[in-house]
């Protein structure tokens, strides 16, 4: 069994696995914040899986995020940003991201009635 590799203190690392809806949601949320992070697929990286087990009482609970070596299990994007502010403020995005929310405008395709 591989030894858990300690996360890089100069990075934000997100441990995830394919098919995990919570991982996909957090990845989307983090993308919107503009925060740079390194994704680690625990199904391909055995040392990453060992790290996740080491901080989650033997469970492979994902997403697990390491912020400058501080683990967070199943965090929200807000919790990740707060941990970055607290432990690694130099990793925060320089400028806030532009509003990336899609704007949907609904129109009647057949025109006005009445």
Overview of the molecule:
This protein has 114 residues and is of the alpha+beta class. 30% of the residues lie in helices and 15% in strands. The protein has three helices and four strands, in the order βαβαββα. It has helices spanning 21-33, 46-55, 77-87, and strands at 12-16, 38-41, 64-67, 70-73. A four-stranded mixed beta sheet has the order 2-1-3-4, sandwiched between helices. α1 (21-33) links the parallel β1 (12-16) and β2 (38-41). The protein is globular and about 40 Å long. It starts with 11 loop residues before the first strand and ends in a 27-residue tail after the last helix.
Chain-wise SSE layout:
Elements: E1 12-16, H1 21-33, E2 38-41, H2 46-55, E3 64-67, E4 70-73, H3 77-87
Parallel strand pairs: 1-2
Antiparallel strand pairs: 1-3, 3-4
- How much helicity do the residues have? 25-40%
Instruction: Write down the Rg.
Output: 18 Å
In total, how many beta strands? 4
How many helices? The count is 3
Biggest sheet: strand arrangement: 2-1-3-4
Oligomer: single chain
- N-C termini distance: 72 Å
Shape: globular
Low-confidence runs (pLDDT<50, min 5 residues)? Answer: none
Q: Overall pLDDT, averaged?
A: 86
- Tell me what portion of residues adopts beta-strand conformation: 5-15%
The largest sheet, given as strand count, sense and whether it forms a barrel, is:
4 strands, mixed
Structural class, please?
alpha+beta
Order of helices and strands: EHEHEEH
């Amino acid at each position: 069994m591989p030894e858990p590799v300690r996360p890089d203190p100069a990075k934000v690392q997100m441990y995830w696995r394919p098919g995990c809806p919570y991982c996909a949601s957090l990845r989307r949320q983090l993308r919107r914040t503009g925060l740079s992070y390194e994704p680690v697929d625990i199904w391909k990286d055995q040392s990453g899986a060992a790290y996740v087990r080491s901080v989650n009482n033997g469970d492979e609970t994902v997403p697990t995020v390491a912020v400058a070596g501080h683990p967070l299990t199943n965090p929200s994007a807000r919790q990740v940003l707060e941990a970055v502010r607290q432990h690694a403020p130099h990793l925060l995005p320089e400028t806030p991201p532009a509003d990336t929310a899609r704007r949907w405008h609904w129109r009647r395709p057949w025109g006005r009635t009445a």
